[in-house]
C-alpha cells in the first residue's frame, strides 16, 4: 500500500484586525514581519510576538494588493484608484511615492529589487517601474482581459508569469516587452498564478474552482487539482520545494501533492473567504488572509 505524503501544518495563531476584510498578506524577506492590507490601510505585524508594529493609512486607495521591498524599508500598495503607492516604513506620515500609469485597478505587485516594482492591472497590462524616477520602464501587453496576478522567483526575476480574465496565462521575459509563451488551458478567469521553484512549470488558480499545473517546455497542462469545495480559487502558492501546492478556495486552504495531484489535507478555521496565502521565506509557516478580518498562521 502506497503511503500518502504528509504536510505538518496546523492552525497555531490568529492575528485579529479591526480594519475589516484582508485582501492581501505578505512576508518580509527575512521572515520577521507580516504585512496585511485592509480597505484603506496597511498593518505590519511582528511574526515572532504577533504584535502590531505599525499602521499605515492609504486613503482613497481601496487596497487590493501590497508587498514588502527586499529590505522592508518600503511597502508597495495598489488598489482601485489605478495607482500604486510606495510608503517608507520608517516614516508613516511621509508623503508616499505615487506610481501612476495604469488605466485600471492594480491587482498585484511584487518588488524586483529595491528600486524596481512589477505590477499587474485591470487595464490588461503589467508594468515594470523605476520607483525613484516614478516612471514606467516597460509595459507588457497582450492579455485581452483584466490581469489578476503575476509571479516570479526572487532569485531570477527575469522570467515572470501572469494570469487574467481572458482565461490565459502568459510567460514573459522582463528584459523584453513581448510574451514568450501564451497558454489557453483554463476554462474560466485566472485569479492567481504561482511559478514552480525550478521555473519549468507554473500553476494557475481559477474562478471555476480548479487549479492546474502547466509545463513551460511542452506548453501543456500536466496536472489538475479540482477543489473539493467547488468555490473560486482566490490564491495559490507552491511550497519551497515544490512538493506541495497550497490552494485558497472558499474559507479553507487545500494542500495538494503537486506531482500526484492528490489532496493531502485541508486547513480549516477561517469564517469567510480566504483571499491571500503566502509562505515565509524559509517555507515553514503559511500566512492566510481572509475576509473574516484575520490573518492565520499555520505552523509545522
Strand order, biggest sheet? 1-28-27-26
* Count of discrete alpha- or pi-helical segments spanning 4 or more residues: 0
Helices and strands: which structural class? mainly beta
Distance between the termini: 26 Å
Classify the beta-strand content into a percent band.
Answer: over 45%
Structurally, the number of domains stands at: 2
Annotated CATH homologous superfamily of the largest domain: YVTN repeat-like/Quinoprotein amine dehydrogenase
User: Which fold does the CATH topology of the largest domain refer to?
Assistant: Methylamine Dehydrogenase, Chain H
Question: Over all CA atoms, what is the radius of gyration?
Answer: 18 Å
Low-confidence stretches: 1-5
- What's the helical proportion of residues? under 10%
- Give me the oligomer status: single chain
By CATH reckoning, the class of the largest domain would read Mainly Beta
Largest sheet: 4 strands, antiparallel
GO molecular function, one term: signaling receptor complex adaptor activity
Keywords: Repeat, Transducer, WD repeat
GO biological process, one term: negative regulation of transcription by RNA polymerase II
WD repeats: 99-139, 140-182, 183-224, 267-300
Amino acid at each position: 500500500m502506497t503511503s500518502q505524503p504528509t504536510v505538518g501544518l496546523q492552525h497555531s495563531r490568529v492575528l485579529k484586525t479591526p480594519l475589516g476584510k484582508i485582501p492581501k498578506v505578505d512576508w518580509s524577506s527575512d521572515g520577521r514581519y507580516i504585512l496585511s492590507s485592509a480597505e484603506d490601510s496597511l498593518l505590519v505585524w511582528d511574526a515572532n510576538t504577533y504584535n502590531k508594529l505599525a499602521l499605515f493609512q492609504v486613503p482613497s486607495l481601496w487596497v487590493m494588493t501590497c508587498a514588502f521591498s527586499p529590505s522592508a524599508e518600503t511597502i508597495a500598495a495598489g488598489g482601485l484608484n489605478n495607482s500604486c503607492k510606495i510608503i517608507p516604513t520608517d516614516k508613516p506620515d511621509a508623503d508616499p511615492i505615487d506610481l501612476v500609469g495604469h488605466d485600471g485597478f492594480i491587482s498585484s505587485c511584487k518588488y524586483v529589487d529595491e528600486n524596481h516594482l512589477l505590477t499587474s492591472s485591470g487595464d490588461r497590462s503589467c508594468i515594470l517601474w523605476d520607483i525613484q524616477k516614478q516612471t514606467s520602464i516597460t509595459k507588457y501587453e497582450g492579455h485581452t482581459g483584466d490581469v489578476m496576478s503575476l509571479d516570479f522567483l526572487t532569485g531570477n526575476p527575469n522570467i515572470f508569469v501572469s494570469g487574467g480574465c481572458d482565461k490565459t496565462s502568459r510567460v514573459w521575459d522582463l528584459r523584453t516587452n513581448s510574451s514568450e509563451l501564451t497558454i489557453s488551458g483554463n476554462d474560466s478567469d485566472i485569479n492567481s498564478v504561482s511559478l514552480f521553484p525550478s521555473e519549468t512549470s507554473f500553476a494557475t488558480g481559477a474562478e471555476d474552482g480548479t487549479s492546474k499545473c502547466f509545463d513551460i517546455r511542452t506548453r501543456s497542462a500536466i496536472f489538475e487539482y479540482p477543489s473539493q469545495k467547488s468555490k473560486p480559487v482566490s490564491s495559490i502558492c507552491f511550497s519551497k520545494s515544490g512538493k506541495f501546492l497550497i490552494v485558497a478556495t472558499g474559507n479553507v486552504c487545500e494542500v495538494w501533492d503537486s506531482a500526484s495531484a492528490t489532496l493531502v489535507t485541508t486547513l480549516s478555521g477561517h469564517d469567510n473567504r480566504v483571499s491571500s496565502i503566502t509562505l515565509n521565506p524559509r517555507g515553514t509557516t503559511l500566512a492566510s488572509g481572509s475576509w473574516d478580518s484575520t490573518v492565520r498562521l499555520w505552523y509545522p
